Every structure is written in structure tokens, then in C-alpha cells.
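User:
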Amino acid sequence: DAVAWSLVERLAIEIGLMARRAMRDLGVAEADVVLGGGMLQSGEGPLYEAVLEYLPKGARGLAVPDRPVLGSALAALDAAGASAEAKARLRREFR
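Assistant: Predicted structure:
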């Protein structure tokens, strides 16, 4: 339906604008843009495809299937000096 598609497109535009602003603020011409969350983490679907269209030149969209908290947990393990096996075990538990 037209209204639903307009909302998807609006969100995709906003995500593209955020990526453009972040790249400009960081002074980078190329960047991987991590796309996660409920509607983007699968790496497919109308919103994901629209976001890829609206990303700025030099931005590469990467779908991340893991929940965001995994990154924080891995950083905590790094800070604690945990082994690679501990990190692998954590990743397995989140899947």
C-alpha cells in the first residue's frame, strides 16, 4: 500500500542521511554502515533494499544478524582478557 511504502522510504532516507552525516563528521569518504535491528538484520526485505539505495556514495551497507548487546559483551570480555574460546562460546549462546 502507498502509505506503508512511503513510511519505509522515509525511514530509508533518514538512515541514509544519518550515514552521510556520520561520514562527513568523521571525515571519511568510504565506510561500512552496520545495519542491524529487527527490520534490517536479516539483510533482505523492502526496507533493507531501500536503505541500500539511499546510502551515500562510498558507504557499504552490512547486515549484522547479531543482537547489539553482543558487541558490548564482547568488549567486556576483551577488557577482562578473555580467551578466544570464551568469545566464541558467547557468540554461540547469542545465536
